[in-house]
Structures are given as C-alpha cells and as structure tokens.
Description:
2 copies of one chain form a homodimer.
Chain A: E1 11-16, H1 21-33, E2 38-42, H2 50-56, H3 60-64, E3 67-69, H4 72-76, E4 81-86, E5 96-98, H5 99-110, E6 115-119, H6 128-132, E7 136-139, H7 151-166, H8 182-198, H9 210-221, H10 225-246
Parallel strand pairs in A: 1-2, 1-6, 2-3, 4-6, 4-7, 5-7
Helix pairs in contact in A: 1-2, 1-7, 5-7, 8-10
Amino acid sequence: MKNTVNPLSNIRIVMDHTSHPGNIGSAARAMKTMGLNRLYLVEPQRFPDAEADALACDARDVLEQAQVHATLDQALSGSVIAAGLTARRRGLQNPCLDVREAARRLIEVAATQEVALLFGNETYGLSNAELARCQYVIAIPTDSAYTSLNVASAVQIMSYELRMATLTAPNSPTDTAEMAPLEDIEFFYQRLEETLTRIQFLDPAHPKRLMPRIRRMFARTQLEKEEFSILMGIIKQINLFTKSKVD
Amino acid sequence: MKNTVNPLSNIRIVMDHTSHPGNIGSAARAMKTMGLNRLYLVEPQRFPDAEADALACDARDVLEQAQVHATLDQALSGSVIAAGLTARRRGLQNPCLDVREAARRLIEVAATQEVALLFGNETYGLSNAELARCQYVIAIPTDSAYTSLNVASAVQIMSYELRMATLTAPNSPTDTAEMAPLEDIEFFYQRLEETLTRIQFLDPAHPKRLMPRIRRMFARTQLEKEEFSILMGIIKQINLFTKSKVD
C-alpha cells in the first residue's frame, strides 16, 4: 500500500465537454475553497478564456495547472475509480450513491490512490457511454420540481462533501470558552432568587414555576465564566439600588 | 403548537447588500434546485436585472417573488431565528456552528416557525452589527489557504444541507416551544440596556463590550415567548423599584 497523503490531493475533477468557460472558472474557485486543485478538462468549448479567469478570482492557479485532454480515457488515466455525477436516476446503470455516502467512500480510496469525478456538459450531462465508464454514479438530491443544478454548483457541492468527509473531528477546542462551574451557577440562582423576592417579582408564598423556568433557560445557555461575572455584577447593582427602598 | 409544514417553505434566504445581480440569479437557481423559494433582498445594488434573470435560468419565478427591503430589520421581521453565514471564526461572537449541524437545528425549528438565513455582501460579508443580530453564526469549512467562497455558492451549500436535513429528519415533528420573535428580542435588549444604564451598571460613556456580550449569551439561549415575558417582567419590576431613587 502507498503512503497516506491528503486525500483531496488524490482527487481530480474532470469536466467533460463544458460549453461555458464561466462554469470552468466558477468550478475552479469552488474546488479551491474546499482544498481541491486538480482540474481536468475534456474538450472544453473555450479554454483558456477571460470569462473563466474572471470567475475563478484567486483560483486562477487551478486554471493554469488544469490539464486539457482530447478524450475522457486520457483524463481518467491513472485513476482507480471514476465516479460520474448525474441528475438522472435511471434503471440501467451502475449503483447510484447519494453524494454524501459517495464522498465517504471516495475519500477512503483517495487516501492512497487516485480518484476521478466526472461532470458532464451543461445541457446533456454525461452520455450513457460515459456513465458506463464509471464505477459509481452519484446523484445530488435535487427537488423533483426543478433538477437543473448548474455544473459549477454540482462541483461545489461535491467538493464540499469531499472536504466534509476528510474533517472527521468535531468542533475544534479553540471554539470552547471557559465555562462557569456548576457551583457558581447554583450560587447565581440563589442570589437571583433572593433578589427577585426583594423586588417583589417572586412571591415566596406562591413561587409558581418561576425559578424552574429560569433554570431551564440558563441551562440551555451553558454560561461561560465571564458571563457569570456579568450576571453577578448586575444582581449586585440591583440590590445596591433597591436596598434603601426595601429595607 | 402550530401545524407542521414543509420546513423548507418556512425558510427565507436573506441576501444583504448584494453587489452583483448575477449572484442573485445564481442564488435563486441554487435555492430552487433544493426546494427553497423565498428570497429576501436587502438593498441590492441592482435588482431586477437582466443578468440576474439570465443566471436564474428556470428559477425566474423565485426572482419575481423576491421581496426587496430597505433594512435588515424589515427582512428579518416575523422570523424567530436569524442565522448568519461567515467565513470568519472570531473570538467574541455567537456560537459558531458548522453548516451541517446548523441545518439540522434550523430544520427542526422551521417545521413550525419562520427562520432567516443571512448572506452578506460579496466583499465585506456581514458586519459585526449584523452578526450580532444572529442567534447562530454558521461557518462553511473552507480551506484555510483559500476561504473566498462565492456568495451564491454559499447559498447553494446551505440550501443543499437544508434539503439533506429534511431528507434525513425524523417524520414526527419534535416538540419545539414557541420562540420569541426577533423584534421582541430586540425590544428586550433595548429595555435591558436602558435599565442597566439607570442602575449604573452600564456607563453609556464607556459601554465596553457589555451589550454585545449579553446579546451573545441570550443568542445561545434562543428565548421562548414565555421566557421573554418573564425577563420583561423582571425589567419592569427593577425599574419600578429603582425609579424613586434615580429620579
């Protein structure tokens, strides 16, 4: 087995007989935002092209490194899996995977070997002959009332799912602020209850469900340490201002 | 509890200060392929526009039904959650969700109540003030080497994840409490700020980051209607008790 690399670097996006250069540029940008950079073009109608450059924005390097091939065979050469995107879910074809499940499987393979993803022409999609070259056929679940996904949008969704499949880890620890310990939160509830009683919002003889409701609300919040300090500061100030009136 | 509907019909896509009409058209097409059709535009630079029509293809009906608003407040009115898309993951902001987790949560709420998704300007994204209006900030996990996702592509990915979330959601609606509408929550912040100023916890000359911090804390909470009433009741009572002392 070969060494493991970043699987995204083993994935090529193959655009087949693309008509509009703008779609090639948008696809390049879509790929680069998701960490993909290997674009293969089979007989594009116009390439290179100023419109492709314009829509690529700062992903022009993807266009500059793009390989242009005369046949699909050439573009697939060296890859171990070809997977074709289609809007059609027809009877006579290879197993049709949804894009998420497909991304999971392709990323596994791409850890060590080359994978190709095929996107057909804007109007005709992939031909039956081209789909027959694919081990997988991938369907993006469009609304049945309007299935006409733009080809660069299809590249965007597929690239996004491939990236998501590589990111197995949950939220990074930097997202987590320091939380208030539970004993502080209990202390806050206690002081709040005293204060609400003092300002006659809470009647200890008829407390109803007020404190349980407030607990439930703050339980959802998961108070951070600094937020706990702010709340305690507010309570202190309310008490300072109401002391003379109540006492 | 309100009746359950197709959650996608309770979701509005809000494009804020969009510069390029082509992006509005592409976003409309992206939405419609995923079964979304409610587009709200806040001060678009050019709309309606031939370029938007051209890129919308057969999603022109989405453009024709689009609502154009002068302010973000107007565009958010009636929704119980606002979620903003951002490329930035900064320190002091609302909890940052990945797009998949966000889609799951939003679809649950959208089964019974209105949800707004905010997409900022192509160059500047959403301002800090706009992000402060959002209960959720959603990050699409772009490659750190190139984070410049096109705004219509961001709409495409978000719409796709929302659709995927509806396809995988359990059939029975979850028991979601009725939430406070955003205009009520803004009113609460406003009254709270006045009250904190009155009791001299907040110094208007040196507000520091107090209100943004409080907004962030309550944004996580997702206030329910009854909780909003409790909080307004507490504020009223504080004011009643402090009035004689301050005035």
